[in-house]
Every structure is written in structure tokens, then in C-alpha cells.
Amino acid sequence: MVPDLSKIPDSPGVYLMKDSSGDIIYVGKAISLIKRVRSYFQSSANQTPKTRVLVRQIDDIEFIVTDTEIDALVLEANLIKKYRPRYNVRLKDDKRYPYVKVTINEKFPRIFLTRRRLMDDALYFGPYTNSRAIRSTLEVISKMFLLRRCKKQVTSGKTRPCLNYHIKRCMAPCRDSMDLEEYNRRVMEAVRFLKGDTAGLLKELEEKMNTFAASQEYEAAAEVRDQIGGLKCLTEQQIATSGIGDRDVIAAVADGPTVYLQIFYIRHGSMVGKVDFTMVDSGGSVEVPSALAAFIKQYYQDSPIPPEILVQYELPENELISGWLGQRSGREVKIQVPFRTEKKKIMDMCVRNAEMAMRVAKMEKGPAESSLIALNELKDVLSLEKLPKHIEGFDISNISGTNAVGSVVVFESGLPANSRYRQHNIRTVRGIDDFAMMAEVVNRRYSRLLKEKDSLPDLILIDGGPGQVGAAKSSLDALGLDIPLIGLAKRFEHIITPCKGPGEVIILPLTSPALKLLMRIRDEAHRFAVTSHRRRRSATLTHSQLDAIPGVGPGKKKLLIEHFGSVENMKSASPEDLMQVKGISKKIAELIHEYLCDKSSVKADGG
């Protein structure tokens, strides 16, 4: 079904595609909204598999008109960051490396760490890849220059200074007796230091360390030594504000839906740092040039923009993106593919580093690491006291209440422990009563563990909704056990948590590692229950009243049991009902009906 496109204008803007649940699944921009949106619903012959899947899920389209295509590009990047649509290529981690911010736009400037670079009038230094070194250096700056780092408003009128003043970490301009000229002189000294003029400060610190050592104040000398070490470490990867000869080199390699990116920071002709990022496309494999363009639009929203960016492929919309970056930085910005000289060499090195990062990520993210991530998330989501390393999952399998089986699967550290799986044939419940069956299995499982003094699980997972969970909880209460218990309802994958209160439900996104682990345990419990039930039913089929009926072999017997559930149910069936089963002719149906009716009458007379 094609959404109504009649109201979409022929103007620049952004379109938001929604599915039947109203969730935004894709955000795009266009110089002509109507032409771009219509192209999705024309012939699919030239569309990628991802686009065809996307179009099938579109239920509604909203749009926002902008004045220019650059405005649309900015709005698109902001909306992708806000809504994180499933079919847009987006930053997976969106991590930010720290900057040092000096608020020279304030009367008494502050100096502090931030992970967002805003387009304001403050000075920014960074990003720094060694956050420990820059934090240590800020401590040095606090001691040497006594600049304020707090958010306190400095207004006219004397106020009481905070602890930083008393421990000699701040000049406390809030006292209203601060010399503004002296304060600004210290600010400029700190700025010169952050720009790389560290020789004077290092010399002063070394003299201070030697003085402490000579007076046998070894603890104080060691503290200054650590400050010198942090300062030298920071100086080695110092990244000043962008200037002449500054550039970023960005390389990307793809592995299916995941793109691994590497950024080299070149400042004044030398590489002074590097960072890596990961992007993911939930719709499937991704084209690297498109991913690079998407990354640049998202990354440089709040990161310093150099005058030159080197990439390994020509980007779609290169001129548009360059124009937007130029507007943000206030100068011309070039995005280029190097083909020769030193720029090509540094680009090739960046590509090799991206490929290495991809290989390392693929090696490191094994089952154990993925499970640990899921278990930690599960602990936080369920507010558990400890990591749920031992999880047991329960399920019930039966057909019309016959041959009912309860399964118990055990996961240790997020991985299945097959040797500890257990099957329980239902003994006390007659007919179809899944709640009572669940209560029986849970009771028998933990009665035995208590008797044998075996280890109890950190978490119990029930395949089912509030009814099954409540039945399991009643068995635990009867045994005096207080084990965290949850259920996982199949239809919406909601987590039922009676331990948090009746009827409370936790809803996690389908991409959640914790939810994926719970679904895996639930599915494994279901698989094991069904397998156990089939095995028990097959054993029953080997000895049946049907064996004595001519023309009913093992194949027909299996089909009859699968259709009716039990011989008892067949006794009340007419020949016409029996003929509904594949392979049962009219003659065979009459034979089965006559035989089972005779058996029933004999049993009744004998009673």
C-alpha cells in the first residue's frame, strides 16, 4: 500500500518514514521532496534489497520543508541522531573524546573538560585520546594558574568561596575582590600552555620536585613526578586548535552491516593522535562511500572542523557537505581523495589501521565477551544484587494435555550447559492446565536441588506470561526460596517481573544484548521441551490400542495421534472425523471406529 503523497511539496526538506506502529524507520533529505519520495514507490528493479525491505514497511510519511538543501542536510543529521532510525547508517557508539574548554566569552573564564564542542565563542583544545593524561594536566593547571572550574555564577556582591579556594585550587573571583586583569593574565598563560608552550611549566615542576626530594618530602615529590609524567604524556599527543597545515584523515572498511572507521589527526604536518569509531546499518550490507558521508555529517556536528579532510573514496554530495562544513567553521573546507605524495601514504596507513581494527574487533567479540555484556545489562535492568551467571529456563510442552513434559535448561555465564538440562514428565496434572504444570515442574526441580544441596540459580526464566510466572512464584514461595524470577512473553517479547510488583513489565529494544540472551534461553527451553515431548509421544505410540487394527501401521498411527492428541479423543470421533487425517480411507476409518467403540463398551461393562 502506497502512502498518500499528494501533500508532499516540490521543495527542499527532510522526510520521515514510519512503520505501522508509528516508529520512525528512516530519515532522508532531498532538494525536491516529492520527486525523492516518489522514487521509492516506482519500479523496484533498480532498488537495493535494503530499499525494497524498507518500502514494504512504510505506512506513513511526514516531511519538514527547509529553505535550502544545506538546511535539509543539517536537519537530517540532527533527526538521525535523535531518533536513530533502523534503516539509517549511524554511529554505533557515538563516543566522544574529551576537549579542554576555556570560556573566554565570560568575565572570569572557566577551564574544564567537555565531550561536546559547541559553536560558541569559547576556546577548545582537543580532542584528546588519553583522558587520564588530560585530567592530570587540568589538576596541574588548577594548582599553577588557580582558574575556576565550577559553574557558579560570578556576580557583583561578595559571596562565600567554596572549598577549591581553601585548598588553593582557585583564585575565587566570586569573592568580588579579584583583580580582573591579573585573572585574565593567568587565563592567557594557561591558553599558551594548552597551545603547546609547556617548557617553562615543566622546568618549574621539575625544580619543585627536586626541592621536595631534597627536603625528604618523598610523597609530595612523587605527586609532582606524576604531574610531570601526565604533562609529558599530554604534550606528546597535544592537539591545538586547527590552523595552517591541519587536516583529518578518515578511512573506512566494511564487514557486512558494520563499518569500522579510523581518524588520524594531523596538526602542523605531524600526526598527533587517532581515534576509531563503528557504524552499523541494520538494513544489511553498506556501501563505504555512503557510510563515510553519513559519518562526516554526524561526527562534525560537534567536533572541530579542520580546513582539509582526506578520504579514500569520492563522497556522494561532496560539494554540499563541504559547503555545510565551511559554513560551520567560517572558512573553506576541502574534502579530497589523495592520489600521490605524502597525503596518499598517510591515507594508506589510515586504511590499514581501519582494517586492523576490524580484524581485532572480530577476534575479540567472541561468545564469552558478548555474553558478559548481556549479563551486565541484565543485572542493571532487573536491579539484581549480583551478576546472573547461573540462569535456568522452564517451558511446558503437551498436545491436548497428553504426554505433558516440562523442560529445564541451564545457562552458565551466558552459555548453555547442555549436560545439566533436565526433563520432567508431568505426574499430578490431568487435562490442559499449563499453570499447574509449571508449578509442578518448578516445585520438583528446586525440591530436589534443596535435598541434594546443589547450587541454586541466580535467575529463573519462565516461558510464558503472568499466569505461568505466578504459578512458578507460588512454588518458590512454598519452598521458602527467594530467587529472582521473570517471564518472557512470546508475542511482544515483554519481560514479566513479579519480583518487582504484580503486573509490572519491562520492555527492552530488540537490539538489547540482555533481551537477546533471554530470548535465546527461552527458545532453548522451548526446543528442549518439544524434543522431550516428541520423544515421549513416540514411545507411547510404540504400544497403542491402534496396533491391533488391520491396515493401521506406524505411519498412520503417528498421523492419527498428532491429529487427535490421544486414543481417548479418537473414541469420540466419527468415521468422517477420522477420514480428515491424511491416508485414512473410509474403510480404515470404519474399522478404527468399530474397534475403539467395542473396546470402550467392554471397558464400561467391566467397570
How would you describe this protein?
Belongs to the UvrC family. The UvrABC repair system catalyzes the recognition and processing of DNA lesions. UvrC both incises the 5' and 3' sides of the lesion. The N-terminal half is responsible for the 3' incision and the C-terminal half is responsible for the 5' incision. InterPro entries: GIY-YIG_endonuc, GIY-YIG_endonuc_sf, GIY-YIG_UvrC_Cho, Hlx-hairpin-Hlx_DNA-bd_motif, RuvA_2-like, UVR_dom, UVR_dom_sf, UvrABC_protein_C. It is found in: Cytoplasm. This is UvrABC system protein C. The two termini are 65 Å apart. This protein is extended. The longest helix has 29 residues, at 513-541. Strands 13, 14, 15, 16, 17, 18, 19 and 20 form an 8-stranded mixed beta sheet that branches. Strands 4-10-9-8-11-12 form a 6-stranded mixed beta sheet. A 3-stranded antiparallel beta sheet has the order 2-1-3. It folds into 5 domains: 13-88, GIY-YIG endonuclease (3-Layer(aba) Sandwich); 99-236, no CATH class; 247-364, Nucleotidyltransferase, domain 5 (2-Layer Sandwich); 373-538, Nucleotidyltransferase, domain 5 (2-Layer Sandwich), CATH 3.30.420.340; 542-606, DNA polymerase, domain 1 (Orthogonal Bundle), CATH 1.10.150. The chain has helices at residues 33-40, 49-57, 69-83, 131-145, 163-166, 180-194, 199-214, 218-236, 288-299, 318-329, 341-364, 367-381, 434-452, 466-478, 513-541, 554-564, 567-571, 575-578, 586-606, and strands spanning 13-18, 24-30, 60-65, 90-91, 99-102, 111-114, 123-125, 247-255, 258-267, 270-280, 308-311, 334-336, 390-399, 402-412, 415-416, 422-425, 459-463, 485-489, 494-496, 505-506. With 607 residues, the chain is an alpha+beta fold. Helix 3 crosses helix 10, helix 7 (199-214) packs antiparallel against helix 8 (218-236) and helix 13 runs parallel beside helix 14 (466-478). A hairpin with a 2-residue loop joins strand 8 (247-255) and strand 9 (258-267).
